[in-house]
């Protein structure tokens, strides 16, 4: 009687290592001659085209696979015929060889031999064609038929299914890596190098941003070339943003549960190729052309003064847990790449996606840092936002700010110079680390998001939290030499409601995802303004537009780095879906026709005005935290807080419920000097935020703060392409409209 582990897939499928797959009629295909393979070199890893000995052109293949018993590189011709070439050289756990005549455009993969012993974490299966972790381009899309699983997915006893090796060949069903010739020196590119304090980030999805844009040719929509098109770039430059933060563009795969429901992974947080631009976003082709297209996109954005930041997912891969597919790392060296539990059949999961990369392992750390350097030096990007960065900062178990990953980044001469943004949490114990990342890093500040949402729905018990968030979150970041720009301020992100939905829905509506509305957060901190979803009630609609103006104005006046989500400036809606990760359709795409509606066009104009105001005034983008102390004999401080009575706030005022907050920013006391060494001097401003449902009086502070105030922004006004021409004398009481922001400049 055979054990479960000794069972095999149904007969009729080719066995691993048996040569070519059987032809459809049962006849075996002719086996092409195996090319010569020379020793080659163990570095660099991946498939690198070069000129070898005696001037012979070819490709060097190098794969780290420490516990493997053998590695074959598999070449595929246009008809799908496979040639398997053993790599016999082994240097420092790297299998390598130089194959003469293999040119750019060649499609390839690996088969790796070794033990099948899931109880100890060994999951080698040479029947499965594996994607090179260092592949620079990927041709084809991942589906998940049974053949791509290393185990028998449909084994009757599911509790042991992952221990039964599947012998069916996966090559016909998986994408292939592509040999790419890197011949671009970027000598004609000019990186914007925008200082952190001057940055305004715009989070966008390459496909969703361009898919419906009427100014982009139809054949370029949804692609890198579409984002590089002048029509797309013009929107970004007119808005005034300094950087785009692209949702994942590493090659990714779709999850099985989505494919079964006829859906796909739209956001892309399911990476499988850390060097390859996602092929489906290329208009020019997928056998290497996507690399050049991505580079041209970066150049076009740089020429417009816009930096490119990538949202990267190095915490897990698309191979999921023990019941997931075998696509790459799992079949190369499962124990070397992934964190396993004490029961080595199971994966440690700090990500909620089935697995976690074992970043403490040198080879995993090398994979990540090699990938990061590649995107900077050869693809031209300017920074990274790290998804679930706390998972990368874990040592053996706990999050450790002295972890190998953070230490390597800090000393790397390339990576320490680019923008580094942490999503400072994961789902594991102790994973919430907002404010804890070291200097060099900025962080998504979800405490900013929550405070601003709560203030404008009048749900804060007092205004202490709001004061910290408006002024740069010094309680979180004023340590270790960190600066206010360590805080990436946001009210919305890709994950959650859009800004319009935040003021239109009280609860999530994710039915289109097919998960019974169970997915997505329940903690939206939203307010629907009196009606759930879209309504014809003009009073509700006007109130919602005012709330949008309030939220955007608050964000762009706050100290720190503001991040907008693409389409929020247009009033984009996802129809109440707060987890549109699988909505590659009108729910997830930008509706550019909104710009033709006066109300939404006015919102766009206000957003552009606020960004321009921020760029003009250094007091709104400080490089150092406020001191709150008087800098001169007249008692004027760099930051002061006022109640509606016009009096400076006392300790008791901070702890009392309040709907109104006044913030005075002095332009006379800005730390630092300009590029020529001169003091930085700016206008001074008073911002009055009022979340109450009724108008309120507000007494304008007198000496030493000001003699007169000029209204610059009034969010109670629908259209304000020009600043309202209103001046008030200090000491007078003005009326602040219900639910509004007034920004007044000291005249």
Walk me through the structure.
With 747 residues, the protein is an alpha/beta fold. It is built from 16 helices and 29 strands. Helix 10 (446-456) packs across helix 11 and helix 14 (538-557) packs parallel to helix 15 (598-616). The strands form 7 sheets. It has an 8-stranded parallel barrel with strand order 12-13-16-17-18-19-20-21. A 6-stranded antiparallel β-sheet has the order 22-23-24-29-26-27, with helices on one face. The protein has a 5-stranded antiparallel β-sheet with strand order 4-3-7-11-10. Mean pLDDT is 93; it is low at 1-29. It starts with 45 loop residues before the first strand and ends with a strand.
Tags for this model:
elongated; eight-stranded parallel beta barrel; alpha/beta; 747 residues; six-stranded antiparallel sheet; disordered N terminus
Question: Short description, anyone?
Answer:
The protein is built from 16 helices and 29 strands.
Number of distinct helices: 16
Report strand %: 15-25%
Name the strands of the widest sheet in spatial order: 12-13-16-17-18-19-20-21
Biggest β-sheet strands, sense, barrel: 8 strands, parallel, barrel
Query: Percent helix among the residues?
Result: 10-25%
Low-confidence stretches are: 1-29
Radius of gyration: 28 Å
CA(first)-CA(last) distance = 92 Å
Mean pLDDT: 93
Shape: elongated
Structural class: alpha/beta
């Amino acid at each position: 009687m055979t054990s479960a582990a000794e069972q095999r897939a149904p007969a009729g499928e080719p066995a691993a290592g048996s040569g070519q797959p059987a032809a459809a009629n049962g006849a075996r295909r002719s086996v092409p001659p195996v090319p010569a393979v020379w020793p080659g070199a163990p570095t660099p890893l991946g498939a690198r085209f070069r000129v070898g000995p005696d001037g012979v052109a070819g490709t060097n293949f190098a794969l780290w696979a420490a516990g493997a018993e053998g590695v074959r590189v598999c070449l595929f011709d246009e008809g799908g015929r496979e040639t398997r070439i053993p790599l016999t050289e082994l240097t420092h756990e790297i299998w390598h060889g130089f194959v003469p005549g293999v040119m750019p455009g060649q499609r390839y993969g690996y088969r790796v031999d070794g033990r099948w012993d899931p109880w100890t974490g060994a999951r080698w299966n040479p029947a499965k064609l594996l994607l090179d972790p260092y592949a620079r381009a990927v041709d084809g899309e991942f589906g998940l038929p049974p053949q791509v699983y290393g185990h028998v997915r449909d084994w009757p006893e599911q509790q042991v299914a992952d221990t039964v090796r599947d012998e069916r060949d996966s090559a016909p069903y998986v994408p292939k890596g592509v040999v790419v010739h890197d011949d671009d020196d970027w000598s004609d590119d000019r990186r914007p190098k925008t200082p952190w304090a001057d940055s305004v980030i715009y989070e966008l999805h390459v496909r969703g941003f361009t898919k419906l844009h009427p100014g982009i040719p139809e054949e370029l929509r949804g692609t890198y070339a579409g984002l590089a098109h002048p029509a797309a770039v013009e929107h970004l430059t007119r808005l005034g943003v300094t950087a785009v933060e692209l949702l994942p563009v590493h090659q990714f795969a779709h999850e099985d549960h989505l494919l079964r429901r006829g859906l796909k992974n739209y956001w892309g947080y399911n990476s499988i190729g850390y060097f390859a631009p996602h092929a489906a976003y290329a208009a020019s082709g997928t056998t290497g052309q996507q690399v050049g297209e991505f580079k041209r996109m970066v150049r076009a954005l740089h020429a417009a003064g816009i930096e490119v930041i990538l949202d990267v997912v190095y915490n897990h891969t698309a191979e999921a847990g023990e019941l997931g597919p075998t696509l790459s790392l799992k079949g190369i060296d499962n124990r070397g790449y992934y964190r396993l539990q004490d029961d080595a059949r199971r994966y440690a999961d700090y990500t909620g996606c089935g697995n976690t990369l074992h970043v403490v392992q040198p080879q995993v750390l090398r994979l990540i840092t090699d990938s990061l350097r590649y995107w900077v030096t050869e693809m031209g990007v300017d920074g990274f936002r790290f998804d679930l960065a706390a998972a990368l900062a874990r040592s053996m178990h706990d999050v450790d700010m002295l972890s190998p990953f953070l230490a390597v980044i800090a000393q790397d001469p390339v990576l320490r110079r680019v923008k580094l943004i942490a999503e400072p949490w994961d789902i594991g114990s102790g994973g919430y680390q907002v404010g804890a990342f070291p200097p060099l890093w900025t962080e998504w500040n979800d405490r900013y998001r929550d405070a601003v949402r709560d203030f404008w729905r009048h749900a804060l018990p007092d205004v202490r939290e709001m004061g910290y968030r408006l002024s740069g979150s010094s309680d979180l970041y004023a340590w270790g030499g960190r600066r206010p720009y360590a805080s990436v301020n946001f009210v919305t992100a890709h994950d959650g409601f859009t800004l319009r939905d935040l003021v239109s829905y009280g609860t999530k509506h994710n039915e289109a995802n097919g998960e019974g509305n169970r997915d997505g957060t329940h903690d939206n901190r939203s307010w629907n303004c009196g009606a759930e979803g879209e309504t014809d009630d003009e009073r509700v609609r006007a109130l919602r537009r005012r709330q949008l103006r309030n939220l955007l104005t608050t964000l762009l006046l706050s100290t720190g780095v503001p991040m907008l989500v693409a389409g929020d400036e247009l009033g984009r809606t996802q129809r109440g879906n707060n987890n549109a990760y699988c909505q590659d359709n009108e729910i997830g795409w930008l509706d550019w026709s909104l710009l033709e509606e006066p109300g939404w066009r006015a919102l766009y104009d206000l957003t552009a005005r606020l960004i321009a105001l921020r760029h003009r005034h250094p007091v709104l983008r400080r490089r150092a935290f406020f001191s709150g102390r008087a800098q001169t004999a007249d008692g004027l401080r760099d930051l002061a807080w006022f109640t509606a009575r016009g009096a400076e706030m006392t300790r008791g005022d901070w702890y009392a419920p309040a709907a109104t907050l006044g913030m005075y920013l002095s332009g006379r006391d800005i730390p630092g000097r300009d590029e020529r060494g001169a003091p930085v001097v700016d206008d001074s401003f008073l911002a009055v935020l009022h979340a109450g449902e009724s108008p309120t009086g507000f007494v304008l502070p007198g000496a030493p703060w000001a003699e007169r105030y000029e209204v610059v922004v009034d969010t109670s006004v629908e259209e304000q392409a020009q600043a309202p021409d209103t001046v008030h004398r200090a000491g007078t009481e003005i009326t602040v409209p219900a639910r509004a922001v007034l920004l007044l400049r000291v005249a």
